[in-house]
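Lab notebook: predicted structure, single chain.

Context: the supervisor wants predicted structures on file for every construct in the current expression panel, including those that have not yet been purified. This is the next one on the list. No modifications to the sequence; it matches the entry in the shared construct table.
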Amino acid sequence: MIVVAIGGVVLVVIAVAASLAFGSRAVTLGEIAEGLGAWLRSDVAERIGAIAVAERIPRTVLSIVAGAALAVSGAVMQAVTRNPIADPGILGVNTGAALFVVCGIAFLGATTTFDYLGLALVGGALAAVIVYVVGSIGPGGATPIKLALAGAAMTAALSSLVSAVLLPRLAAMNDFRFWQVGGTGGADWEAMAVVAPLLIVAAVVATVCSGGLNALGLGDDVARALGVRVGLTRAVAASAGVVLCAAVTAIAGPIAFVGLMIPHAVRLVVGPDQRAILPLSALGGAALLALADTLGRVIGSPGEVEAGIVTAFLGAPVLVVIARRTRMRAL
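Prediction complete. Output recorded below exactly as produced.
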């Protein structure tokens, strides 16, 4: 566990260094040091390479924070639903947040981070509840295949509503289209400061629930026998997962598959203990999104490919592999 944690920290450090060093413009080690020094002193760097490094700092921080939050959110949702393919994107949380944001832009004149955050939280929470309720109907309760089908149906329906709202409103579409792709290019400190308290509280709540999530993994009856309040634990942990995902979606747009890939990779290494999975998933998610953002800048140079597109490209084959290896008892 300690060795894996150290490896995760090293990976995050490498991802941060790569994010600062690579992009549409190549920089030298001296320019990286100058850019970091100027940013720490709140000065303006002189060389253009150092200025580029200073400009990359906020998006690097956002990549680290967003990746960690999405990975922890995915780990929590997989534990709560006992579903190996649960992910904020697959369960419709991202799309629910997107629908409420676009409705806020089109009908309420939403423009600020506070507006996006409130709308994303409400939309994501409602979508998660509806998917879980629909997936729980019928014999067997919320099985993996029923939740996946309910999430896919909800995502398709909400995506259609998003298009229906946007198509006749060109101005709203222009405001929404960059947010919808999912990326960290628009990172700014003010927006991150708005969501930071929510992310911290949700991460703490998820960590506190990790022992209860371990018990839920043994089955509801066993968890009750161990003294765990099943309904309360599931509701609190799920709320933390939704808040983590929706808060990130509000400032970075919907970024899929981070919450699916990282918890699976971590579980393969450390086993099913949520007390290890959650913090290690945070490290893995932070490294993955920072590297995806860097890769998007490099392959799209002189422009860039948004991180949400890179993670989707990487995550689709991973989802296929997981689905093929997962036992779908409902079938």
